[in-house]
Amino acid sequence: MRSYWLVPAGGAIALEERDVPRPEPQPGQLLIAVRASCFNRGELILSHGAERKPPKLAGGECSGEIESIGAGVEGFAPGERVMGRCVGGFAEHAIMDAREAMRIPPLLTWEQAAAIPLSFMVAHDMLVTHGQLAAGEWLLITGVSSGVGIATLQAAKVLGANVIGTSGSAAKLAKLKALGLDVGVVTRGTGFYEPAMQATQRKGVNLVVNNVGGTVFAECVRSLAFEGRLATVGYLDRTFKAEIDLEALHTKRLRLFGVSNKLRPAASRAETVRGFAHDFLPYFAAERIAPVIDKVFSFDEIPAARTYFESDALLGKVVVRMPA
Hints:
By secondary structure, the protein is α/β, with parallel strands linked by helices.
């Protein structure tokens, strides 16, 4: 089968096409005939010793039809439409842990379904599981025009929160107003503290989702209210370290946490799936949330899709559609 692989090369991650045997589902797994998949920045950032790791299949989420089922799997049947995190979304077939699989609501297209799992489950992890965001609270999202940023904005609005977002593009922020963005701050880095203070009557924000990374970490901490929470989820600035204001952490009783699936065991990831399916999936079925898709490319256009994905033009998800 045709597939793309992530290959560490020269201090970066290369995408390499390979023809490999079709995988077979092991116990507890589903074999998915992939219909669509998406790019995610975490796969393309070289960090944490990745340059010493062997190549791996690209694509961490997909939508598709169940082709075959491994031993011990119950509740699914061949031919069903599912979406979820997977191994090898940029391939004709992918393996999915049955505990990660979710049936696709009838009104969603393959492309929409593929754009949901990673971004929106991360948003659920940040806002609900750890962030405990309540209606009426203030959320600050740095890098709000990223895929995770937009998903977090959409999820926060259905929870009834007020949202401040930063982006280097005033045009992107203007478009996100239609999704409920309350305050947009034009910046690629710092400079959001004062707007956040003005919006919150000098109290500070209750939760920060930091997509940008280390260069804005200190200002994120500074912008938090008493008993505020700070989620670190991305490194758009490629800066992996930052200083912590211990006095602010101590006196404001802050809570800092990271959101990543790299080291989580399968059972822990499955808990997130169940929480997301219970809390957020009904919003998609009722069309209260629709994933924002910037552009759809064919499987043959994956190199061009990556180039576009890493450009400043992006607003939302870049989807790769497989041949029927």
